[in-house]
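Annex B. Sample input.
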Amino acid sequence: MFVNSQGLCLQLLYRLPPSLPPAAKKVKISRSRFSAPLKVVVGPNAEEFFINGEVICAQSEFFKAACRDQWQSGRSRVITLVEDDPKLIAIFLTWLATGDIERCPDFVEVTATPNAEAILVEQNYAQWEQLRCCYNLGDVLLAPAFKNAAMNLLIEASETLLIGHNMFPCRTIQELETVYETTQKGSGLRKLVVDLAVKSMGIQSFGDLDIVCIFHSKRWEQKRN
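Annex B, continued. Sample output.
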């Protein structure tokens, strides 16, 4: 686990506050838990998923808004996400049901042995990239607890790449720019990548990820030459 110069655990540094405060008393079970499930239609091939509406709305402000009666999606109980990746939605729904992202069959697993280092590194990169996309999905769905779960695994995956293989999670300037373009200012993912850059490149500080991109671009050109 990474620890910054102030001795703060990164899992606390990059996580968001819990989406809901602890319950002060036993929560009643709503009748809606036993009603018709919410249908979520995902991707260009219209893959269908079914989930309890109350459960998903408790963790996602996006779904909470979409399920309101004033919207067609709320009245029909069908929400369409044409541009989203069904695998990422499956991971999100698995996390909703089990509390564990890694239990989804679509989660990228690292299965290669240490003897096959090239394959092992590629699998670690693929897992990091999928977790980055999960974090971004949490942004879109306004699901902070899911983002926290993705961040915990991102930190572990980053540690494996940086310490285990001496590899920075973003291999190219384009990958760094993707992190920047798909996150908001103050994002935990931006902070993580900046701190990893500081740690791996021996730089004292960065104001923001755009400076990391400039530095990494120059460093990349030097390596190529």
